[in-house]
Design brief:
globular, Rossmann fold
Length: 233
Amino acid sequence: MKKKALILAGDHWHDPNICFESLGQDLAAEGVEAENTSDWESFGRYMLRDKQLFILHRDGVEFPHGRDQASEPWMRSYQEEVIENFVLRGGGFLAFHNSGWGYPWQGAYRRTLGGYYIGHPPMEAFNVMVVNPDHPVTQGVQPFTITDEQHWLWFDYDRVTLLLVNQGQDGRQSAAGWAYDYGLGRVVFLANGHTLEAHSHPEFIRLKRNAIRWLLRIGEQVPTSDQLTQASG
């Protein structure tokens, strides 16, 4: 049976079509069918009912009173729980770039993502370095230079496996990617991806496709339903 993914992308600063186009190609290359949406208000459990992978590429805020007014978080507690339960029950969660910014700083989403956004300097060229070359997500990935936003994040070093770091022209480093198993599912966060140029970089493409395969256990022996039932208690 063909695996399916839902992509939720697009906000005030990020064109959803960049994500839909680039990730659509990455998913298709791995034999995964993609459904695209920018409808954050309608996001809920029913949108993931036939999916094995959820991809998020958007800020955590909206401007309900106009762009010149204060922003507000869009994600509600039930939507946080939808994502957490989806992963705990065996789904894959691939979060990109801005998916840590403006989201609830504690609760189900924060637990699932494994980190939280702090800020970023102006866009510039910087180096991306692999710190864990043995993980399936970084398999075959070489250090590379990319022009992007170097996002700064806290991350749960005691829970997640750090895979990559960004190093700016000033020498400062930041977490650029991590992965971990959560319940019966898996999570990958990749900090880069603000522009189409970034998404089109050959090494970043390799990272994305590796992540898709690992999250969906493509090529792995999939647990039987009895094993999943036993694992969930």
